[in-house]
């Protein structure tokens, strides 16, 4: 047999002998357009579970797929793949590699063109060259000379195979007899998060408020999620501290915020020690976008507004005089029980009140997770027209382990109506009240409280003497 005939025969036999190997070596591109469904489950600690399906054509035997549209912030070890009659052999995350450096590396030892400007004539000159090295900068053979990091630009005549301008997830699958399949993917990503925000409207009397809950979800990943069924989870999930993965890109900050339709979401579903809020909607979350949905609205609850002084009551050891200081304004309410009860996820509550027909912002505070029947207390600022001062009137040491202290506290109000305030303090162990101008209450063993009514435009005093024995 002549050599040319032998070469031809071997070439014709190649597809039959190595079909499986060719399938594995040639990756099938699976674009984001192949996606058939998408669901997001978002947690409050910056973590999201992505579940999606894509329709893929598979050849018999081994297949390599390159899936695009997967976030670089994927927690790679969390990936699971499921398809009927298909088994996963290996997976790899491949970052975008169509870069100037990789292009030059692919051309090492080969022919390129050097395009530069002739310093004498100013004309553009194109010269054939060979790229010899990239160590410390490009080294080229141009004609009979060697150029080291020459001025101008290096031009390649073709784009090397296998390089991609986008990152992709590469899977090697065993597809058995082959055929089209619906491929199911589930994986965790960093950068998806949600939080609860609340708007509370306090009535002028300060004894009732109307509460609206908002779900604020943010996409801090590097990809968009379109037509995604959205569920959020209230409650903590444990995470192991992981070493940073080199391909994880920094997430962009939120760029815009949208308010979704104002229908309330269905009541949450309890699952273990957490609550699931299925929004029942498909959302579009662009890269860096923040959206808000209404958890509930128009929830009317009884409220209590109080003024409280902390820090005026002492057992000696501090300054002889304190103040004037203003009391903290506290607004408290109980999360209602009953058939329509809703647990309140941790979040930020913003309080508004109406004065003279004008809506005013009264303050904001972070609230913890609150079950139905739980109490919420909101320190929303300080009272303007009420002040308090304190001074030590006597301090007597009885022994190395005991002393007595007396204090006078003056509370004043510039309001046109009487006001009640709470005067609270923490005392050391071993205290005993000897004298007091009005009876106190115990909040705990070492926390005492006086409830004091201050007359309109007037003042009220509290005096006491106590002994501390150690």
Secondary-structure map with pairings?
Blueprint: H1 3-17, H2 19-25, E1 27-30, E2 35-42, E3 47-56, E4 62-67, E5 74-82, E6 87-94, H3 100-106, E7 111-117, E8 124-133, E9 139-142, E10 145-148, E11 153-155, E12 168-174, E13 181-190, E14 192-202, E15 208-219, E16 225-234, E17 256-259, E18 269-271, E19 274-285, E20 289-310, E21 321-325, E22 328-334, E23 347-355, E24 358-367, E25 375-382, E26 386-399, E27 402-413, E28 419-426, E29 431-436, E30 441-444, E31 447-454, E32 459-469
Parallel strand pairs: 1-4, 2-16, 14-23, 17-20, 20-28
Antiparallel strand pairs: 2-3, 3-13, 4-12, 5-13, 6-12, 7-8, 7-11, 8-9, 9-10, 14-15, 15-20, 16-19, 18-19, 20-22, 21-26, 22-25, 23-24, 26-27, 27-32, 28-31, 29-32, 30-31
């Amino acid at each position: 047999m002549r050599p040319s005939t032998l070469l031809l025969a071997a070439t014709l036999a190649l597809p039959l002998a190595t079909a499986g190997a060719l399938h594995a070596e040639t990756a099938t591109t699976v674009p984001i357009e192949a996606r058939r469904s998408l669901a997001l489950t978002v947690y409050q600690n910056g973590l999201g579970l992505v579940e999606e399906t894509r329709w893929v054509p598979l050849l018999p035997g081994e297949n390599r797929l390159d899936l695009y549209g997967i976030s670089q912030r994927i927690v790679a070890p969390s990936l699971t793949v499921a398809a009927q009659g298909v088994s996963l052999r290996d997976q790899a995350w491949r970052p975008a590699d169509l870069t100037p450096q990789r292009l030059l590396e692919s051309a090492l030892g080969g022919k390129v063109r050097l395009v530069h400007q002739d310093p004498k004539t100013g004309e553009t000159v194109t010269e054939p060259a060979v790229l010899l090295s990239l160590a410390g900068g490009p080294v080229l053979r141009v004609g009979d000379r060697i150029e080291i990091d020459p001025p101008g630009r290096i031009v390649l005549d073709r784009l090397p195979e296998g390089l991609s301008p986008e990152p992709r997830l590469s899977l090697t699958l065993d597809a058995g007899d082959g055929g089209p399949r619906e491929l199911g993917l589930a994986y965790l990503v960093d950068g998806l998060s949600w939080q609860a925000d609340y708007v509370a409207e306090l009535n002028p009397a300060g004894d009732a408020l109307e509460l609206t809950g908002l779900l604020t979800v943010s996409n801090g990943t590097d990809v968009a999620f379109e037509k995604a069924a959205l569920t959020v989870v209230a409650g903590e999930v444990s995470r192991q501290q992981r070493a940073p993965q080199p391909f994880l890109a920094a997430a962009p900050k939120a760029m815009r915020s949208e308010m979704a339709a104002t229908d309330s979401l269905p009541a949450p579903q309890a699952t273990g020690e957490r609550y699931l809020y299925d929004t029942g909607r498909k959302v579009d979350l662009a890269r860096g976008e923040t959206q808000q949905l209404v958890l509930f609205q128009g929830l009317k609850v009884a409220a209590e507004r109080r003024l409280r002084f902390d820090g005026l009551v002492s057992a000696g050891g501090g300054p002889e005089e304190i103040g004037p200081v203003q009391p903290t304004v506290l607004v408290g309410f109980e999360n209602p029980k009953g058939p329509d009860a809703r647990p309140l996820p941790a979040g930020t509550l913003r309080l508004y009140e109406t004065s003279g027909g004008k809506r005013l912002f009264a303050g904001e505070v972070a609230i913890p997770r609150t079950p139905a029947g739980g109490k919420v207390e909101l320190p929303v600022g300080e009272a303007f027209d009420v002040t308090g001062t304190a001074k030590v009137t006597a301090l007597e040491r009885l022994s190395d382990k005991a002393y007595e202290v007396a204090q006078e506290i003056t509370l004043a109000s510039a309001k046109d109506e009487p006001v009640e305030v709470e005067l609270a303090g923490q005392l050391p162990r071993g205290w005993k009240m000897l004298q007091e101008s009005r009876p106190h209450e115990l909040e705990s063993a070492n926390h005492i409280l006086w409830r004091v009514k201050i007359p309109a435009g007037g003042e009220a005093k509290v005096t006491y003497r106590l002994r501390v024995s150690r």
